[in-house]
UniProtKB/TrEMBL annotation:
Spans traversing the lipid bilayer: 174-195, 220-240, 260-279, 300-323, 556-579, 608-626, 632-652
InterPro entries reported in the protein's UniProt record: DUF6619
Protein name: DUF6619 domain-containing protein
Keywords, alphabetical: Membrane, Transmembrane, Transmembrane helix
Length: 667
């Protein structure tokens, strides 16, 4: 029991370190250089050139004395690089981030970055999340600036302490692990006190004072807790020194050791409380009994809490793993798109003049001839046709070109790495969708070059067909189609309607360009250049999201394993209580030839029934709170019940055998 208890404290200490480091990592990204206010910008509607907006932000920071930062993922190395864009004329001074000149050493494992001044943002989008200091003049100036330039700006203040604590423990998988590890420790303590019940009763009979018995219990807990916490602290200090760098230890050690001390105080306090609760009374001693009802009440309460927690956390683990898998499957896509760019225009109306329509078409021809143009648009994301699609058996209607198909690794008539397109005739499509296509496509294509009947239509065979909804990179609008109807445009520059499709698609980022230098060259020589306010990479937000989920999935797996072990251990503790409560029954029935499992069967059924009800309740709560898919929740609940059943059946048999052997030897 000493070893189990000490190892539990080692594990909890490791979780204290991990939770503290996660909190520090969150603070680095959530409040870089102590910038406490979050500002979300959406520049989709502005007509002001990007360079002018950046200059104005720099002046606002300089004149107000406030600080403005933006954290961005480096597209060249999305997994291991995050940079900080800073505004103004005062280079930020490090207080919670290690910086050597312009090199950033984030606390996150293997993540580095650079300090980049806003004048060097280049293709990085101006839309996104910023962190600004809590400076009244700065905030007022930013609001005026946003209103003047038709920019949507939303401000969020720093989370209060209660919300931070809730976020650390309830919304954080490591926090979940920490809480449930403490529940596991409580079950270990209960098991220890159950084993010591007879010894404690003898001490009372011998005249030892109750306070002295409690002091001995606390002494045992303190000694083993100190051993566990020291071992855990040494292991984790070396781990973080090795994985994060020795220079990061100064950031970690002080807040972590404070949290370890608080945890030790909690363990000592709770052990003293349990010692008082399960203390045997005179009636127990007179009847040579132990206070089993109190043990049962505490054990049942902990089991219900653990099961409820499991049904809230484990489905999130599955969901997170699915999202991470999805991101991993899409990684080839975002890797290719990391060097793809979209244009943002100051005034779309000017593009519709006869002169500019010619210029747009010429610009498209040049980019197409240089193999630097791709088209991808999910029409159903802009026009409501879900009923027509559903009746036809399709989930999306997508217009694209061969360049996009090749980039996605999809073959035409021949299977490639990520699937194949099979040609289908328009007449074979359901009437309602066919009618929509025949009415809509003449508005989107150049009918002087081809007509709707001559377009090529395809179905898709494969896992997922990746396409773009409007505003990729600003709205994180990726789309994974399983059974789309694909309309393939062979010559976008000549076959697409400039007014009906090209200009709107340029403005929403559904026509993208794969070579920045070629794009700059043709823009430089185009009359369209004055109308372009920014050239932005489209993969920033998706890469940042992928980075987040890649980290979280491991944490959720640790939380789930901790929960499953704790659920099983509470069941084993219940079996231990049952065996102690039914010593005479077990001895008599075994000596009369009844098997271990037949003796335990009635109580096992009750145990499984109550546990099943707790699992059902946990599933309902999980669905209501986190809206996890009901199939995922049901699968997790069923799996938990099966594992619980297997281990608890073994525990009932084992503890029955132990109690019987003790009875035989009169122990």
């Amino acid at each position: 029991m000493k070893k189990v208890f000490s190892m539990s404290v080692v594990f909890i200490t490791a979780l204290v370190f991990a939770l503290t480091v996660k909190s520090l990592e969150f603070n680095q990204r959530g409040e870089p250089f102590k910038a406490e206010i979050v500002m979300n910008l959406n520049t989709a509607d502005t007509k002001t050139p990007k360079r002018t907006l950046i200059e104005e932000l720099n002046n606002i920071s300089k004149n107000s004395g406030g600080e403005i930062y933006k954290i961005v993922v480096d597209k060249e190395n999305a997994n291991n690089n995050q940079n900080i864009i800073w505004f103004g004329d005062k280079k930020p001074v490090s207080n919670n981030i290690i910086i050597n000149q312009d090199e950033i050493r984030w606390l996150s494992k293997g993540v580095n970055g650079r300090l980049i001044h806003s004048t060097k943002m280049e293709e990085m989008t101006l839309s996104g999340t910023y962190h600004v200091s809590n400076n009244h003049d700065l905030l007022e100036s930013l609001k005026e600036w946003a209103e003047k330039n038709q920019i949507k700006a939303t401000f969020f203040e720093k989370q209060n302490t209660i919300k931070k604590i809730y976020g650390n423990f309830m919304s954080n998988p490591i926090g979940n692990s920490f809480l449930i590890a403490n529940v596991f420790l409580l079950v270990v303590l209960l098991s220890y006190f159950l084993m010591k019940s007879k010894e404690r009763s003898i001490k009372l009979l011998a005249g030892v004072k109750r306070i002295d018995i409690i002091r001995d219990d606390v002494k045992f807990v303190l000694q083993n807790s100190l051993i566990g916490s020291i071992i855990g602290s040494i292991i984790m200090t070396f781990y973080y020194a090795f994985t994060r760098g020795v220079e990061q230890i100064n950031l970690i050690i002080k807040p972590t050791m404070l949290n370890v001390i608080f945890e030790l105080m909690f363990i000592i306090g709770i052990s003293a409380l349990i010692s008082v609760i399960v203390e045997p009374k005179a009636s127990h001693i007179a009847n040579r009994e132990i206070p089993l009802k109190r043990f049962k009440t505490l054990g049942t309460t902990l089991k219900i809490l653990t099961v409820l927690f499991a049904l809230i956390v484990i489905p999130m683990t599955v969901t997170s793993a699915v999202i991470t898998s999805k991101m991993a499957n899409e990684h080839f896509f975002w890797d290719k798109m990391s060097k793809s760019f979209r244009l943002t225009f100051s005034n779309l109306d000017e593009l519709f003049t006869d002169e500019n329509i010619i210029q747009v078409q010429e610009f498209l021809r040049n980019m197409q001839n240089e193999n630097s143009l791709s088209v991808s648009m999910a029409i159903d994301q802009s026009i409501e046709i879900s009923s027509e699609l559903q009746k036809s058996g399709f989930d999306h209607l997508i217009i694209t070109d061969k360049s996009w198909i090749d980039n996605m690794g999809v073959g035409i008539g021949k299977k490639e790495e990520n699937g194949v397109l099979r040609e289908i005739k328009l007449d074979d499509i359901d009437f309602e969708l066919k009618d929509f296509v025949e009415r809509q496509m003449p508005l989107l294509i150049n009918e002087e070059k081809l007509n709707t009947q001559n377009l090529k239509y395809y179905t898709f065979e494969g896992d997922k067909f990746l396409a773009l909804a409007p505003n990729p990179g600003k709205m994180d609008a990726t789309l994974q189609a399983e059974n789309p109807l694909v309309i393939l445009i062979e010559n976008p520059a000549d076959e697409l309607n400039i007014k009906g499709f090209v200009i709107p698609a340029l403005s929403t980022g559904n026509i993208v360009f794969s070579n920045r230098s070629i794009l700059d060259k043709h823009l430089q020589n185009s009359p369209l250049k004055p109308l372009v306010i920014s050239v932005d990479g489209i993969a920033d937000l998706a890469l940042q999201t992928a980075q987040k989920f890649k980290t979280q999935v491991v944490d959720y797996i640790v939380a789930s394993l901790t929960l499953l072990v704790t659920v099983i251990f509470t069941g084993i503790f219940g079996a231990q209580l049952w065996a102690n409560e039914n010593k005479k029954k077990i001895y008599v029935m075994l000596t009369n030839g009844v098997s271990y499992m037949d003796i335990a069967k009635p109580d096992l059924r009750k145990d499984f029934l109550y546990t099943g009800l707790a699992i059902f309740l946990g599933s309902v709560i999980c669905y209501q709170i986190r809206r996890v898919d009901i199939r995922t929740t049901s699968l997790v609940g069923l799996s938990t019940l099966i594992l619980y059943t297997i281990f608890v059946r073994l525990a009932y048999r084992l503890h029955s055998k132990v109690v019987f052997e003790k009875s035989v030897h009169r122990e």
